[in-house]
UniProtKB/TrEMBL annotation:
Pfam families: Aa_trans (PF01490)
Stored InterPro entries: AA_transpt_TM
Ranges annotated as spanning the membrane: 39-60, 66-89, 124-145, 165-182, 189-211, 280-300, 320-340, 383-400, 406-424, 445-466
Topological category with respect to the lipid bilayer: Multi-pass membrane protein
Family to which the UniProt record says this protein belongs: Belongs to the amino acid/polyamine transporter 2 family. Amino acid/auxin permease (AAAP) (TC 2.A.18.1) subfamily.
Coiled-coil segments on the chain, per record: none
Keywords annotated in UniProt: Amino-acid transport, Auxin signaling pathway, Membrane, Symport, Transmembrane, Transmembrane helix, Transport
Task performed by this protein: Carrier protein involved in proton-driven auxin influx. Mediates the formation of auxin gradient from developing leaves (site of auxin biosynthesis) to tips by contributing to the loading of auxin in vascular tissues and facilitating acropetal (base to tip) auxin transport within inner tissues of the root apex, and basipetal (tip to base) auxin transport within outer tissues of the root apex. May be involved in lateral roots and nodules formation.
Organism of this sequence: Citrullus colocynthis (colocynth)
Limits of the Amino acid transporter transmembrane domain: 32-465
The keyword DNA damage belongs to this UniProt entry's keyword annotation: no
Subcellular location: Endomembrane system
Protein name in UniProt: Amino acid transporter transmembrane domain-containing protein
Amino acid sequence: MAAHQFPKNPIYIHQNPEAALKNFDDDGREKRTGTWVTASAHIITAVIGSGVLSLAWALAQLGWVAGPAVLVAFSMITYFTATLLADCYRAPDPVTGKRNYTYMDVVKAHLGGRKVKFCGLAQYGNLVGVSIGYTITASISMVAVKRSNCFHKNGHDANCNPSQYPFMIIYAAIQLLLSQIPNFHKLSFLSIIAAVMSFAYATIGIGLSIARVVGGGHERTTLTGATIGVDVSGQEKIFRAFQALGDIAFAYSYSMVLVEIQDTLRSNPPENKEMKKASFVGISTTSLFYVLCGCVGYAAFGNDAPGNFLTGFGFYEPFWLIDFANVCIAVHLIGAYQVFCQPFYGFVEKWCSKKWPESKFITTEQIIKLPFNGEYQLNYFRLIWRTAYVILTTVIAMIFPFFNDFLGLIGAASFWPLTVYFPIEMYMARTKLPRFSSTWIWLKILSWACLVISLIAAVGSIQGLAQDVKTYKPFKS
């Protein structure tokens, strides 16, 4: 086992200039090989997540008019701002400018000042929140497999409430291993598998909902959603509608990793063009599934739609298909966890290496030869800190194992700053858009409107979390 330290100069000068040109990009880093296909897989992995499972519930709160309209509006806003953000990867020119490797780097290049710190707080705080949310969701899906088999064996009225905690530990153990993947560029295979899984369980959920509707399961639905005085009180109606907005916002939260995804693309064709193509494919594909899952799920369950229609317990039979769908969810979230964590891992490790450049504990790589897998670079700091991170997020998930409210809060906190505010502000700065021009006014109106939506969604989710904490009773082992 050999050891070496990271070079302080990131630009590696090869002895053979022609070989260096072939193996390295214009910034001296290892040549990127990603395409719009792999970027689309990353986006689908990041976007189609646990949020899709709560859309039937969200539509039940908003109804047939506002529900689909909000879904379509969020998808259009997300795609529009994603195209603005794609042009900011390089600066000052979107094709030939200097690369920016992270969202914070992009904000620093275009805006600078305190906005960089605000971006870091918003981005990395939400990445931590997503880690916790995915741990909760994956464990719920694992528990659902056990519950589904219990209901099949003992009847739908049986007391089938296994504990989530052992499954959270299993999920964490898997993440401890996968978290040692060095960086985002090594995740393509994991994202493709996860994207396939997301299609699988979303399709199963849609198919089961259609079967329920066709089979005569016509539940009560309304144009305005849950009815005051019948399904909910007036206060509950307001807070649930607010929370539904947060759930839908979470379903479209991927801007926090968009720059990191774009940094995996090869430079020809230009990264911004390929990223816009990937965003269109990713968001249009997921939007189609979202509308189907939300609308068909609402039609199947009506105003009593469960928070998670595959684990809620919305479906009981065929139990083996429910089991398969929940296994797909768990596998997908294993990959999605890494897609969201890797940018945060990279940020912390980069900051520490700059803070303590002489520390061998932080900078030294141990070269280990693995059977059938070539060489692996083991870094003790990476091993210890990433392990501690997974353990910490798992412990928090155990303390607050609440699905809908937690997703709504994350969505509310991330949607405005990362999906709307920064892309718009950077576009204005990059194009030197005149103040009070018609375009400037409309972009500002869009930004402020999304801020209001995020605030009311946060209010609804915080109220829901407070109620959950008061009434929570852990499952029995």
